[in-house]
Amino acid sequence: MYSLILEEVCFMIMIFTALYCEAKPLIRFFGLKKDPGFIRFQVFRNEDIILLITKPGIANAAIGVTHLCSVYPPGPSDLLLNIGICGAKNRDMPIGTVYLCNKIYEMETGFSFYPDMIYAHPFEESGIATNSSPVLEKHTEHIPENLTDMEASGVYRAGMLFFQPHQMFFVKIVSDHFQLDKIDSNIVNELIQQNISEIAAWITRLHNRMINTPPLFTPDEENMLAEVSKNLRLTVSMQHQLRQAMRYYKLQYGSFSEHLSSFFEKEDILPIENKYERKKCFERLMREFT
Questions:
Q1: Sign of dihedral through CA atoms 10, 75, 214, 104?
Q2: Is the peptide bond before 271 cis (omega within 30 degrees of 0)?
Q3: For residue 53, what is the enclosing H or E element?
Q4: What's the pTM?
Q5: How far is C-alpha 106 from the chain's CA centre?
Q6: Strand, helix or coil for residue 248
Q7: How many other CB atoms are there within 10 angstroms of residue 204's CB atom?
Q8: What residues contact 212, with CB distance under 8 A and at least 6 apart?
Q9: Over the stretch 223-250, which tens digit does the pLDDT of each residue have?
């Protein structure tokens, strides 16, 4: 029955899990078949969904996302989902609870990332801290968020090169309270299996909304954003930030074109000669529109 829904909406979803035991219920539910064209990663797919198992760790997650997105570049209506288990610092967060992460804190660098939370969902929300190694119960005082995992920041870092923030979602299921000796692959499998129907139904509703929504930017606005990116020599990450800022500004004020044009006339900063000038100009631009 679910495959019929997928055929109607006809979209691509990229799912990333760290472990095979996290992926197994998804593979069964969506009827995914192993893709023999991938050697370095286990990849499973059907016509609409591609799932890649990254293996645990920030670096592995980033490499896996980059690899798949380079082979199959995502479009503006496609989705990235990182689905897996997590530890919970707060014992009031029951095992088996599904959380949609509204903040990702990277323990090693102190950087924070914020997926857009602009769509309705049926889950709890929480921030998550990503660490390169498992967090033990005796070290919880150093964890700034209630949830922990080993992949989310790596998925986000790589994903932002290919997706907008509103296309990326981090769905985590509580498996333990930092008592790693109490979980195994069977328990992980069961936790995902218990929640897969609700997660899949939400994905379908979400993507139906995205593909049925007309483009926010007009062709003239797209051309203006492309010209700004070219003139400022923006990196891919900066281009995503620019589009996000303009999206919010247009939703609030109706248009950004006149304001953006007057900004460059007033600043008189073109052409950009080096990375330092680009950085300073981009910072001023972001302050102007956020």
A1: positive
A2: yes
A3: strand 49-53
A4: 0.74
A5: 14
A6: helix
A7: 17
A8: none
A9: 888 888 888 888 877 887 888 788 888 8
